[in-house]
């Protein structure tokens, strides 16, 4: 995950993320049940960790990108820590809830699953979720056709399939199609938070104040300050049994 972002894209990632983390978690978890200790694996700049505080009294967010951690959103019930992408630096049986928000694809392995089972309490839940935003229409309006032809192998639906699941039980899976209304200023942040899109925009518009340039380009092509874009959400819920 760390290679995906640098300081510039981390800045835009922190500036805006769609408010989908909490609705997805509410769909996966029972209302009104408060867990004690939650783990957010690959927490980015902390939006997913903040969503976990609605279900956990304390949250530990771990992240392999130091640039992301530098931009993390501070919260009194969240502790952020660097993650080396291998072993969890936690004792056995300490977490009541474990989340992967758009992060499992980058680190999926049997070793990672074994670590999840080790640090998760018996009967605790692990939630893997992600969302996919339809930004191609926006890129087309910016005349950025080459990106549309590029093949992405990223899998938004990734879960623990294909691994030894002897001590983890699949509970439920969800897929949803949504419509989001987002301001053009936040769409600009969204575009620039992706390193692929950032490089494409940089090549097309140059380096000087790229955010403002993209914002002005969008405004010149849109009829309002807001746009409605499509989003797909994916989530898988497991329960640890050991």
Query: Spatial order of the strands in the main sheet?
Result: 3-2-1-4-5-7-6
Order of helices and strands: HHEHEHEEHHEHHEHHHE
The number of helical elements comes to 11
> Could you give a short account of the major beta sheet?
7 strands, mixed
Report, as a whole number of angstroms, the end-to-end distance. 29 Å
Number of strands: 7
Beta-strand percent range = 25-35%
**Helix amount, in percent?**
25-40%
Verbal overview:
- There is one protein chain.
- This protein has 242 residues and is of the alpha/beta class.
- Helix content is 36%, strand content 30%.
- It contains 11 helices and 7 strands.
- The chain has helices at 7-15, 21-28, 47-52, 66-70, 104-107, 110-119, 136-141, 145-149, 184-193, 195-205, 210-221, and strands spanning 35-41, 56-63, 78-82, 95-101, 120-133, 168-183, 226-240.
- The chain has a 7-stranded mixed beta sheet.
Keywords:
36% helix, alpha/beta, 242 residues, single chain, 11 helices
Topology of this protein?
Blueprint: H1 7-15, H2 21-28, E1 35-41, H3 47-52, E2 56-63, H4 66-70, E3 78-82, E4 95-101, H5 104-107, H6 110-119, E5 120-133, H7 136-141, H8 145-149, E6 168-183, H9 184-193, H10 195-205, H11 210-221, E7 226-240
Parallel strand pairs: 1-2, 1-4, 2-3, 4-5
Antiparallel strand pairs: 5-7, 6-7
Helix pairs in contact: 1-9, 9-11
Concise structural overview:
The protein contains eleven helices and seven strands. The chain is of the alpha/beta class and 242 residues long. The protein has a seven-stranded mixed β-sheet with strand order 3-2-1-4-5-7-6.
